[in-house]
Design a protein that fits this description.
Helices cover about 5% and strands about 50% of the residues. With about 130 residues, the protein is mainly β. The protein has one domain (about 5-120). A five-stranded antiparallel β-sheet has the order 10-9-8-7-11. The protein has a four-stranded antiparallel β-sheet with strand order 2-1-5-6, with no helix packed on it. It has a two-stranded antiparallel sheet with strand order 3-4. It is globular.
């Protein structure tokens, strides 16, 4: 059976929580340390993908991890109904740099990159694109 769980980022106090919040039927977040409902403009809910990195750390939506000297970000692809990784490749073409947005299904990517490690997420870290 697939494990369904979430974590939430409170950008007002810059805190990630895994169990100190509730989600209303309308999708509003409430954190236990606040009296009122959380302002959705400052909250970010992330779902567990069901996968783990090479050290067993859970991979969530918006996580970033390293593999092949690059940084990848986990996203949800609504069109395909699947988790994917996204990254940018930069190529030199004469005097211009060409940036290509790339993507791959997360499960296939993890199978091909068994040493990939979660290094943070887009809210708590800002890693470089390349080493």
């Amino acid at each position: 059976m697939r494990e369904i769980k979430f974590r939430a980022w409170d950008s007002n106090i810059k805190k990630m929580t895994y169990d100190d919040f509730t989600i209303s039927p309308k999708g509003a977040l409430s954190f236990y340390w606040q009296k009122d409902q959380f302002n959705s403009a400052h909250s970010h809910l992330m779902q567990f993908t069901g996968l783990r990195d090479s050290k067993g750390k859970e991979i969530y939506h918006k996580d970033q991890f390293k593999a092949n000297r690059k940084t990848y970000t986990v996203e949800w692809n609504e069109e395909f109904g699947a988790w994917e990784v996204r990254w940018v490749d930069v190529f030199a073409d004469g005097m211009e740099a060409i940036k290509l947005d790339r993507r791959c299904m997360l499960k296939y990517f993890m199978d091909d990159n068994p040493k990939a490690l979660v290094i943070g997420n887009i809210y708590e870290s800002n890693p470089q694109t390349n080493d």
